[in-house]
Amino acid sequence: MTVSIHWFRRDLRLSDNPALSYAAKRGALLPVYILEEADAPGGATRAWLHRSLEALNAALNGALHVYRGDPAEILPRLAETHGAETLTWNRRYDARGMDCDTALKTELRTRGLNVHSANGALLWEPMDVNKADGTPYRVFSPFFRKGCAAAAPPREPLPAPSIALLDVPNDTALDDLALRPTPAWDEDVLADWTPGEAGATARLEAFLEEGLTGYKEGRDIPSAPHVSRLSPHLAFGEISPNTVWYGAKAQPASRDRDHFMSELGWREFSYNLLFHNPDMDWQNLNRKFDGFPWCDAPDLLTAWQKGQTGIPIVDAGMRELWQTGYMHNRVRMIVASFLVKNLRVHWRHGLAWFHDTLFDADPANNPASWQWVAGSGADAAPYFRIFNPVTQSAKFDAEGAYLRRYVPELARLPDKYLHAPWEAPAEVLRGAGIVLGTDYPHPIADLRESRQGALSAYDQIKGSPS
Ligand code: FAD
Fold it and tell me: Which of 111, 173, 247, 338 is deepest in the core (most CB within 10 A)?
């Protein structure tokens, strides 16, 4: 029997895994995962990855061979040791990953191997969606409504293949990758999550049954159960976007369903941007922002990271992130806007913190979203539309369910003052048992003044070339 190696990366699943299905058809399978030294996963993603690999290994009856190091050294050695004829992987779209894969493909083909790559991560690959003149889209609506619509429909999901595992002992151990944190905070933070393919599938089913109806409006309410929370599962490829897309498409037509599918389109847009702008995790997409007068304010950054800004909705979001490894999208936009506009701290600092603390930290969605909020991104809102966190909070968490959960020290304040406790009369604060500056911080920025400061800063660059 011939031998195939499938190299798992961010495709930690058996169903709808086109490269795995190809490999499984060709012979006895050696499933491999490599923790690449060149990757620098954040703390949260390392913890998730450990659990996800555990689940994948269990689904493969303990046959997942795990390594850490350089794939260009490990894979040729494995191919030689096991006499493999075929090596497969699903494609990635970041510059380092693509360079690594291209070089490896050439090297392995020179050695006579059949190397097969497939699209297992996107509904439409970046090279298939361009404007009529061949240039990439910079605006979401035409990208999704014209570009994606004109391309071939996404592939229908494939069933999990039947796999004949290569009969060799597995002397590798997941613990050798040292992904679990010490001390083991992951027990608590992962309590509400089930990393792995089965958890992802269950999450999708629960969302389609209970969360999709009401999504269009409910997705903006951080305390409402109307978002899917599929993002970490999608980021690790525990479920394919095709499975999610066709799962939603099979539901009765509605505005909720269409809106949800268009959010998957935003994920495609981010990957398209990443492919065409490989340095977008540090380079402004709009070069006008290269001269923006950012503030160097480590104390303000720390207060933001710790959820101690004195602005309740910002603190609630930052604490949700720390406690759960996730933050609701509406609140991500609010905390990001507060950092880059009110505090004028560079978006790269926010990106780095999210990279380290989000379970769904994603090489495309994270930088594309930060730049979108900062105003330097593709299709970003006009700079002068600066979120007012108090107004946002009163609108999207009117009864304070989200605030009271994550900022419990303010729980006894009446709704009227919950969103801006500094405006509460002294007797109201006393009645709620709060001394500002002791039990809860004074705001670290004056919202009106800092908004004005941001607009003046933008005035300095608005005439520069983009
Ligand atoms: P749902 O509303 O249920 O959406 C379903 C899926 O659609 C998501 O899982 C995601 O894959 C995709 N999606 C939804 N909204 C967006 C969006 N605005 N942009 C791109 N894709 C989207 N998302 C990440 O996956 N990883 C990140 O690292 C990340 N960083 C972000 C940073 C900032 C500053 C902001 C404002 C947003 C960021 N997002 C990121 C986008 C978005 O907040 C999350 O995708 C969403 O909150 C995930 O929750 P969900 O799965 O419940 O979303």
Answer: 338
